[in-house]
Amino acid sequence: MISSIATADNDSLHVLPLAMIPLQVKALQKTRLIKNTRMQGVIELYSEGEIGSGQVNPDELEKVFDFSGDRARDLVVVKKLATLFSYDVYSLRVSLRKLNIEVDNIESLRLSNEMTQDLADHMYVFTHPLILKIYGDANVETGSFRDVLKLFTDPNADDARKNLRNLANSLEIKLMDIPKFLEAYADVFLSLSFYQKCHDDTAEDLATFIEDLQQLANSPQLVNQGAAANDIAQIASEIDKLHRGVANTIELFRLRTEDMWENISAERYRGMTQLITDHQEKIGAILCAITVKLNAWQDKTSVASTDSISDRIGFVTREIGFGLDRLTGLEFQDI
Fold first, then answer.
1. What is the DSSP secondary structure assignment for residue 334, as one 8-state letter?
2. Is residue 200 domain-shared with residue 316, that is, in the same domain?
3. Does residue 185 sit within a domain?
4. pTM of the full predicted structure?
5. How many domains does the chain divide into?
6. pLDDT at 204
7. 323 Cβ contact list (under 8 Å, min separation 6)
8. Are 205 and 321 in the same domain?
9. DSSP per residue over 76-119, as a string?
10. Burial 75-88 (b: 16+ CB within 10 A, else e)
11. What residues are paired with 34 via a beta bridge?
12. 3-class SS of residue 2
């Protein structure tokens, strides 16, 4: 059974509970990998409100845990995981396959039930075209794939069952495989809904964040420091560009999904789902970086409200801007 803490971590972009990873050092499995402000993966030994967070760089782990003998493999695994760009469940599925790392429980790589329910409105834009394909009525009242599954036993749903058979033929699958198709479809497009929510949830605070950085760049302290002012302005511009890029890409996926359902086929469906999967690591990486850096700035400005302008300028150039260059190679492919 997954703990409530682990379940909450499933909805995070920047937290990886090591309990899901097959490790021999059991004490290590009780910790978490998290992304720090510089987007470096560090092991969080503990996290308490008043005490703070106890973090260890992977290169220093041998001072804390015993990696003798076969346990040495654990250190290699953790160091690989520390290099990943995002720890959201969708990025992890792709990244772990590339690293040949299996998780102890597949449910560890799913969003919590609470998050899934919260994504219902975001999912509508991706599920509605499918529902129309089956029911053929824009005004039909059906809110989930469970309603579709009822068609298999509903004696008054002959037209809808006929549409289901036609859909199965178009997808080149058996009629009785429709439930598996619906599950797979929901999972793939739930990733886009999750990324859309993460994007939307940061939009308002990010606008304030960008404005703060722009004010710093134009502060009197930087009047004679053109290079520093340009650096801060560039950081603000880059973060804003990345955030907008995610929105544009998800919108393109929405439009392509509508096109796909206009003339659905097995080839078009496989191509679309593969395209989405191919972009999950990229989208997750950008949203993870934005979320972590936004949270760091909010902590900095709320807790250390007495910091001088110079302190904040230094924090932006040293911490906020650090690691953004690693995302330049993650530009979205033309879809």
1. P
2. yes
3. no
4. 0.90
5. 3
6. 94
7. 38, 39, 40, 289
8. yes
9. HHHHHHHT-S--SHHHHHHHHHHHT---S-GGGGS--HHHHHHT
10. bebbebbbebbbbb
11. 15, 42
12. coil
